[in-house]
Amino acid sequence: MSMLFQLRVMTAVLHQARLAAVISTLLAAAALLLASVSSPGLVAMTLALASLLAAGVQAYYAARVGFDAALLEAMQACHPDAAPGVIDDVLQKLGLRDASATSRGWQARWQGMRRLMRWQLLALGAQAVLLLAAHLCRWVPW
């Protein structure tokens, strides 16, 4: 399998995370709406705010995944058969990577990118569960 095809496949996988970011935004809006109702109760308010915190974590990982996707797109456009060291060199020149850090191969990079995406999806799941719990707590008298 060619390196260009691998770059395109991984870019396509990373682009799937955009849907999670959109869903997270909708859930955050719902949490804000729930928190702004007249008297949601202390537990429901706390859970809604925790859901918003999870939305912030999701947004952080979404930004990291989006940056990785953009890096892979740039590799496809400029150096489709280049080694991963090209990314390290550019990031070091821009001050985005420590010069003393060791270079990683493609397999380690793919694993890291997938790990970031998993954390993003876990944050989205936590956000949804917390929002659902906040909504259900509105009906329970505390």
Please provide a brief summary of the model.
By secondary structure, the protein is mostly helical. The chain has five helices and no strands.
Report what the structure shows.
- The chain is mostly helical.
- 78% of the residues lie in helices and 0% in strands.
- The N and C termini lie far apart (60 Å).
Instruction: Tally the beta strands.
Output: 0
How would you spell out the order of helices and strands? HHHHH
The proportion of residues forming helix, as a percent range, comes to over 70%
User: Beta-strand percentage?
Assistant: under 5%
Shape: elongated
**Computed structural class:** mainly alpha
**How big is the Rg?**
20 Å
Give keywords:
single chain; 142 residues; mainly alpha; 78% helix; elongated
Q: What's the arrangement of secondary structure elements?
A:
Layout: H1 3-15, H2 17-36, H3 42-78, H4 85-93, H5 106-137
Helix pairs in contact: 1-3, 2-3, 2-5, 3-5
